[in-house]
Amino acid sequence: MAKQNVAEQFVDILVRAGVKRMYGVVGDSLNPVVDAVRRTPGIDWVHVRHEEAAAFAAGAEAQITGQLTACAGSCGPGNLHLINGLYDAHRSMAPVLALASHIPSSEIGLGYFQETHPELLFRECSHYCEMISSPEQMPRLLQTAIQNAIGQGGVSVVTMPGDIADKPAPEKSIETALVTERPSVRPGESEIAKLVDMIDKAEKVTLFCGSGTAGAHDEVMEFAEKLKAPVGHALRGKEWIEYDNPFDVGMSGLLGYGAAYEATHECDLLILLGTDFPYNAFLPDDVKIAQVDVRPQHLGRRSKLDLAIWGDVRETLRCLTPLVRTKTSRRFLDRMLKKHAEALEGVVSAYTRKVDKHVPIHPEYVASVLDDLADDDAVFTVDTGMNNVWAARYITPNGKRRVIGSFSHGSMANALPQAIGAQLIERDRQVVSMSGDGGFSMLMGDFLTLVQLDLPVKVVLFNNSSLGMVELEMLVGGLPAFGTSNHNPDFAAVARACGAYGVRVEKPKQLAGALKDAFKHDGPALVDVVTDPNALSIPPKIKAEMVTGFALSASKMVLDGGVGKMLQMARSNLRNIPRP
To answer: Which residues form the Thiamine pyrophosphate enzyme N-terminal TPP-binding domain (predicted)?
Structure first.
């Protein structure tokens, strides 16, 4: 058997850690690793057109599977292109191993062609960032990087000079066992006892849920039933907690709707479950707050806590629910459910009024029809900006669908490359990229990746020829819109020129048929929908301190926007309220 080089050993360790794909763009210093991938069973090289797309794709795959993924960039500019996607993966707690290939080791520090210092540059967007300087060091360093990415949830970056990758691997390298899954974290007995006491003393309890409730839907519902507690959620908690939820009062925050804001402010005790909700202006400062989070560094960094619980949500609720007293009064819950339904009734008219005739097309209408026609287990990737609003308000979760976006990092151009990673996991599963024209055009080159790999991603392009969210920000600041308009081509014609299916929709009556045809197409497809640039959105509760850095407007041109099937769900939940 031929002796391994370091690159081959590197790739073997990734395969043992469960990595199935490495996303990237080939380049000189990276060539030994790419060639090792070519010759190693169980792992594929995914050739994209931009390394930023590689990192986004790897992050999306990791978010959906929960497993370690990998991306790579060649020395200097190649690996620097990874950084935005890695920031997004890290802030989304997606386990990603990034290889930042480096210049020849003998030239480091001497101003060589394409020289950078990746071990410094990537430090802020990773849990672990180190350079391999010798073959003997590589196995243990890579093992440490893998265990940081999986164990802490986020990015690890390994820098490796191309000449080191090409050297012979050590004769006797130890194959150490690798961590590939995270454990459950159970809170301490004293913390559980304190929380039980707080809950039993509180008359009105509200639960506010984030992405940390993934896998804990049944436990949250059982807990809410016992406490007769309204259940609100942040955007990243929507897909895990909103469906089959008779206690639902909507979403708080800048994209919020319904009665979640009131429920969190009018309770005696607010329990934050698995959320690092960033907008503290939407959290109360005059009620007791307890927070449960598997990451102790998140506890109390958004609001002043009366009790911090270190544990994952599912395990914590399994400990907690049997110990708390069952509350008998539904008065607070029923009042919040009624407020929720009333709030949704008040905004849904903007969506229902003559939308089938409105030109340019209401984006709310596009999102609603998309929600109706998409598969029950579809994966939606969502561009930052107004598409976040439409996805939050119209895409209906059901426990099988997934919604992935740059919800923590807030980057443009995330949806298309994230769709690449989502589709490669399972080619037969429907993947829909809800793209804005600004985001799509920023990384439009990777539409060619869909064609080259024959990935059946369906791009639904909300084309309002503007940076809509930025226009809102300017309105908030009393500024005229400037530099926000896009002179766009016929994107459907561009898609066809690339070898994909493309159709342009300018009238509402064309929309459903165009989406159905695109979904039936066996391959990549783009539906270019010309939407109304004046269809904007505001959250249900506005205070002056909430507007900083976000798109809010007092202008009368702003629509509240509809909320899709959530109104129907809210009405259904009202049936749970006992009648006198």
So the answer is: 5-115
Give the count of beta carbons closer than 10 Å to the beta carbon of residue 42.
Answer: 12
Residue pair 108/162 in contact by the 8 Å Cβ criterion: no
Question: Rounded to an integer, what is the distance from CA 513 to the centroid of its chain?
Answer: 29
DSSP H/E element including 308: strand 307-310
**Cis status of the peptide bond prior to 360, with omega within 30 of 0:** yes
Closest C-alpha to 161, from 74, 61, 248: 74
Placement of tokens 């008998």 in the chain? 328
Residue 12: which residues within 8 A CB-CB, separation 6 or more? 4, 40
pLDDT above 60 (res 288): yes
Phi then psi dihedrals of residue 403, to 5 deg:
-130, 115
Backbone angles phi, psi at 277, to 5 degrees: -50, 120
Q: Are 397 and 211 in contact (CB under 8 A)?
A: no
Per domain, the residue ranges of the chain are 4-164, 187-339, 353-572
pLDDT of 173 over the 70 cut? no
Q: Which 3 state secondary structure label does DSSP give 530?
A: strand
Q: Which residue has the tokens 């961590």?
A: 179
Q: SS3 sequence, 144-203?
A: HHHHHHHHHCCEEEEEEEHHHHCCECCCCCCCCCCCCCCCCCCCCHHHHHHHHHHHHHCC
User: How confident is the model at residue 536, as a pLDDT?
Assistant: 58
What is the rounded distance in angstroms from the CA atom of residue 446 to the CA atom of residue 380? 17
* Residue 143 near residue 84 (C-beta atoms within 8 A): no
102's tokens: 């480096």
- pLDDT number for residue 548: 44
Report whether CATH 1.10.1200.10 matches the domain 4-164.
no
Encoded tokens for 567 = 């109104």
Decide: 489 and 447 in contact? Cβ < 8 Å: no
User: At which residue do the structure tokens 């909103």 appear?
Assistant: 242
Q: Are 68 and 97 in contact (CB under 8 A)?
A: yes
Residue 272 burial (CB < 10 Å; 0-12/13-18/19+)? buried
Please compute Rg for the chain using Cα positions. 25
pLDDT at 560 over 80: no
Q: For residue 350, is pLDDT > 80?
A: no
The candidate with the shortest Cα–Cα distance to 33, out of 19, 42, 41, 45, is 45
- Please write the tens of the pLDDT for every residue from 120-141: 999 999 999 999 999 999 999 9
Using DSSP's 3-state secondary structure scheme, residue 491 falls into helix
Which residues are CB-contacts of 326 (< 8 A; sequence separation ≥ 6)?
226
Q: In CATH terms, are 4-164 and 353-572 the same topology? A: yes
The DSSP code for 254 is T
Task: State how far Cα 182 lies from the chain centre.
Answer: 20
Tell me the DSSP string of 410-468.
--TT-HHHHHHHHHHH-TTS-EEEEEEHHHHHHTGGGHHHHHHHT---EEEEEE-SB-H
- Predicted confidence at residue 437, as pLDDT, reads 96
- Give me the architecture of the 187-339 domain, per CATH: 3-Layer(aba) Sandwich (3.40)
Position with higher pLDDT, 523 vs 185: 523
Fold of 353-572: Rossmann fold (3.40.50)
Residues 154, 90 contacting (CB under 8 angstroms): yes
What integer pLDDT is reported at residue 563 of this predicted model? 59
